[in-house]
Amino acid sequence: MDFQTLVKSRYSYRSYDDSRPVEKEKLLRVLEAGRMAPSAANRQPWTFVVVQSKALLEQLHQCYPASWFKEAPVVLAVKGNKKDSWVRRSDGYNALETDLTIAMDHMILAATEEGLASCWIAAFDPAKLQKAMNLKEDEVVYAITPLGYPGDDLSAKRLKSRKPLADIVEWA
Predict the structure, then answer these.
(1) What percent of the chain is modeled with pLDDT above 70?
(2) What are phi and psi of 167, to 5 degrees?
(3) Whose CB has fewer CB within 10 Å in the chain, the N or C terminal residue?
(4) How far is CA 149 from the centre of its chain?
(5) What is the span of the domain harbouring residue 64?
(6) Per-residue pLDDT tens for 77-128?
């Protein structure tokens, strides 16, 4: 699939086929896409967490209790530590959130290429997530995504609604 088709094909699925596991080979290709993501000063300040165990999935469901979230056989998280990322000297800007976001985006696009469904989730309860994932005090997660095969999701069958380029581009 060419890149323009790929980005137009990516949807936020809210229905997953809970009877169909994700093959390890596909997960490894998704993870490889994240590994290849750029990061500030090439620090690669991330760890990818692939959650498949029923016990941990049940704990994560408490962090984001949407019923459709419980259908996915995998939840993918990208965690990091601010001390491991690049910091801009002039103002102290820490690039961790940007770096983790780029890695997650690469993996979500790779999942689409693999025929997998995903949904970017940032509206989770951070305290519950920290506890469920046993994160260290200085570790953070900015986004998680369920991964699985699409269920019967009518929202994915309609075209994405996007503003026209003329409304969002400035030529300088």
Answers:
(1) 96
(2) -85, -15
(3) C
(4) 15
(5) 3-168
(6) 999 999 999 999 999 999 999 999 999 999 999 999 999 999 999 999 999 9
CA–CA separation, 108 vs 94, rounded Å?
A: 23
User: Token pair of 18, please?
Assistant: 């809970």
Look at the chain and report how many structural domains it folds into. Answer: 1
Burial class (CB in 10 A: 0-12, 13-18, 19+), 141: buried
Terminal CA-CA length for the chain: 33
Long-range contacts of 162-170 (CB under 8 A, 24+ apart): none
CATH number for 110? 3.40.109.10
